[in-house]
Amino acid sequence: MPVIVPAREGRAVQVRAGQRVRVTDLEGGQVGDVFAFAAQDVNEHLSASHTRAATSRLFPAHGERFVTDRRRPILTLVGDTSPGRHDMLIAACDPERYRALGVAGFHASCADNLARSLAGLGLAVAVTPQPVNVFMRIPVADDGRLSWLTAISRPGDAITFEAAMDCVFVVSACPQELVGINGHEPTPLAIDLLRSE
Amino acid sequence: MPVIVPAREGRAVQVRAGQRVRVTDLEGGQVGDVFAFAAQDVNEHLSASHTRAATSRLFPAHGERFVTDRRRPILTLVGDTSPGRHDMLIAACDPERYRALGVAGFHASCADNLARSLAGLGLAVAVTPQPVNVFMRIPVADDGRLSWLTAISRPGDAITFEAAMDCVFVVSACPQELVGINGHEPTPLAIDLLRSE
């Protein structure tokens, strides 16, 4: 049974070492902010900057591993049926981001979704790590400029990870509708825990 | 009077809003890991991923601002006499990095230099933020691959920042000699505090 991540919300699941976890874009064109934390100590988290150092790539290739801020492998990229556009450069959206975009009052955010999802497991982290933004399309030009393009994942496209350690895996269905990354209409995602291979 | 950052070491200085701070590569070809923290609360730090979101660039252009994890401007890039190759993708080196490179026992690292420099001011942080790696040459290929090239900054080349808030500014003269980024011979840097404009 998949765990549905409703539009604009987040969900956390616990994944055992060797287990696989799949994130599906149910309706297409939807970014997911993925976070992963060591089950033994959630202060150890998947780190984008350490992963880039480990892989010498902006985003891991098939079979390559995401590592933590202690340089330990936490997830391996094992499957991707989407067009393969994912981001590992951009911070999670947060209340400050929406305030700067002119929103008065509450707006759902990936940082807030992370905190709520972890709280549901009785967990908390001091810092929002930089997420792995699946299906997010941020191409880098030769001069280093970044473009914020609408996701081109199709309904049912999915990316699959294998856990390299017991971990807490969190997905936020990004609530950003003011910038075009989700086509101005946030939609749900799904998380599937697959059996160990 | 400049603050000399000896080869393989770090130094912290306190910078007032409006003040300028210059990092000079004294002998050339040396990477500096730069960190900045809000003076009022060092849990707020210059964040690479939030800065990329703010500037839509891999590295800010002249006149653009680095922001914190709370999206507040902390530094503005106001001068650069170097060839302009700087990195904001790669994590600070740390004991785990050198262990993975085969070093047994102690090896100086930028993460350790940061902790020691802050401790000298009676400060500590729970997490090593992703640094701004001045003079570090990590080009990104069209396919997202990263290359680790030797710094091409010349003796006396300097990059200058203006503080947008009172901050603690830390520079580590990167002790990495196993990977070629510093030409296999770490050398010193200098920090100059310039008067407000």
From TrEMBL, chains A, B:
Q: Which residues form the DUF1989 domain?
A: 4-168
InterPro entries found in the cross-reference section = DUF1989
Q: What is this protein called?
A: Urea carboxylase-associated family protein
- What are the top taxonomic ranks of the organism? Bacteria, Bacillati, Actinomycetota, Actinomycetes, Streptosporangiales
